[in-house]
Structure formats: C-alpha cells, structure tokens
TrEMBL record:
GO terms for molecular function: acyltransferase activity, transferring groups other than amino-acyl groups. Residues 3-146 form the N-acetyltransferase domain. This is GNAT superfamily N-acetyltransferase. Pfam families: Acetyltransf_1. Keywords: Acyltransferase, Transferase. It comes from Micromonospora polyrhachis.
Length: 151
C-alpha cells in the first residue's frame, strides 16, 4: 500500500470518511445519531492500492506531546490484508516526526476488530476523555511511542 498525505479538502479522502460514517451508522448501537466532525487541523493520510484510495487516517494535536488518531478506516473489500496495521504504523511515525510521543484514540465498543488491532499494537485502554465522555459506546486507548535514541 502506498500512503500519501492529503488535505482535508481532498475528494478521495472525503469519500473515505463518508463511507466510514455510513458504515458506522449501519452498525447496531453505532453512532447513536451523532455527527462526526472532520477536523481541518488534522494531518490526513490516505492509503492507495492499485491507484485506488482504500484507507485513511489522521492525527490531530491534543496539546504538548500528545496527539489523537482520527478517522482510521479501510474499505471492506480491502480488509484482512494488514492495511490497518500499515496505516497505524504510518500514523505513529507521523506523530513522532511531528514531536508527539503519546497517541490517544477513541473507537466504539461495537468494533471488536478495531479494539483488537489497537490492543495488539501496544495501545492500553484508558478512561474516556474529551468529546467522548458522554458517549456510552466510546472506548479509548493510549500508547507511549518509543523515542529513537540518537546514535
């Protein structure tokens, strides 16, 4: 998978976010009528396979050395190929290059595959935070990224 930076105005990114939101609304107990905001100040990555945009994710600064992973999504036809893990690794590398050593994220309790991905990638469950506090479906995670030691 080729991973590229994309601006928030990119039509392929917008199509992926729209597909993600539609899919979440279709899941029982999903968004519960909530509208998700795409943050203009987030840095977005899009995963390309054979010239087609099939995955997306972003990081947004929360403050200090902490950033949040947003909009992680892989189109259903491309799941099960390790693309989510590749994208997550790219987001972690972007966070480190941007000066962040702590990553947080939120996912839904109704997304066991996502929870398993984050847990197997070294993310530990934390109390819900920020805009997610009042969402009964939110599950939040945090990871302290290993800082490379200069040689």
């Amino acid at each position: 998978m080729l991973i590229e930076f994309r601006p928030v105005t990119d039509p392929e990114l917008a199509a992926l976010v729209t597909a993600q939101q539609r899919e979440l609304r279709e899941i029982d107990g999903g968004l519960d009528g909530q509208v998700t905001v795409v943050h203009d100040d987030a840095r977005h990555l899009v995963g390309m396979v054979d010239g087609q945009a099939v995955a997306c994710g972003a990081i947004q600064t929360l403050g200090g050395d902490t950033a949040e992973i947003k909009r992680m999504y892989v189109r259903p036809a491309h799941r099960g190929r390790g693309l989510s893990r590749q994208l997550l690794t790219a987001l972690e590398e972007l966070a480190l290059r941007s000066g962040h050593t702590v990553l947080r994220l939120e996912t839904g309790s109704y997304l066991p595959t996502a929870i398993a991905l984050y847990a197997s990638s070294g993310y530990a469950e934390i109390p819900v935070y920020g805009e997610y506090v009042d969402n009964p479906y939110s599950v939040c995670f945090e990871k302290h990224l290993p800082v490379p030691v200069p040689v």
